[in-house]
């Protein structure tokens, strides 16, 4: 049996670093892409974009994507607008700015998880939708 102890600073660092191994998340993101493939093209905000795999693929499918994450070091695509956003706080967008908000495996890392839901609702246009996927 192994016991791993982490200091509060190490836990906080892990909480916001994201995973550098995207292979574990690819099946989940592929399912999200299947859902998006059936939707009319529009403007997408991705919260917790990580390395940009989902944002880049959605962009290639014809969606207008703005990606965001608290960690700016992981995001790779150069052709997609990227903003540093802490989803615990107010998003820097006007009301009704996006057709879709997507967040994959992000909400469980937030201290104020309801903020992600409330802010997503605020920035979504009337007929828009939100996709949140997390593991419990």
Automatic annotation (TrEMBL):
**Keyword Methyltransferase belongs to the record:** yes
Classification via Pfam families: Methyltransf_11 (PF08241)
State which residue ranges cross the membrane. Answer: none
Q: Which UniProt keywords apply?
A: Methyltransferase, Transferase
* Gene3D superfamilies documented for this protein: Vaccinia Virus protein VP39 (3.40.50.150)
Q: Where is this region: Disordered?
A: 1-27
Annotated GO biological processes are: methylation
The protein's matches in InterPro entries, at most eight in alphabetical order, are given as: Methyltransf_11, SAM-dependent_MTases_sf
Q: Which GO terms describe its molecular function?
A: S-adenosylmethionine-dependent methyltransferase activity
Which residue windows does the record flag with biased composition (Basic and acidic residues)? Answer: 9-27
Source species, domain of life: Archaea
Q: Where's the Methyltransferase type domain?
A: 45-128
Protein name in the entry: Putative methyltransferase
- Protein species of origin: Methanobrevibacter arboriphilus JCM 13429 = DSM 1125
């Amino acid at each position: 049996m192994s016991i791993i102890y982490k200091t509060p600073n190490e836990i906080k660092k892990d909480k916001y670093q994201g995973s550098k191994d995207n292979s574990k998340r690819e099946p989940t993101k592929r399912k999200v892409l299947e859902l998006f493939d059936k939707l009319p093209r529009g403007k997408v905000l991705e919260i917790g974009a990580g390395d940009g795999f989902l944002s880049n693929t959605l962009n290639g499918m014809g969606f207008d994507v703005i990606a965001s994450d608290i960690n700016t070091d992981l995001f790779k695509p150069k052709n997609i607008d990227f903003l540093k956003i802490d989803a615990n706080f107010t998003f820097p967008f006007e009301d009704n700015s996006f057709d879709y908000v997507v967040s994959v495996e992000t909400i469980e890392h937030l201290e104020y998880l309801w903020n992600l839901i409330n802010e997503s609702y605020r920035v979504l246009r009337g007929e828009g939708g939100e996709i949140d996927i997390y593991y419990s």
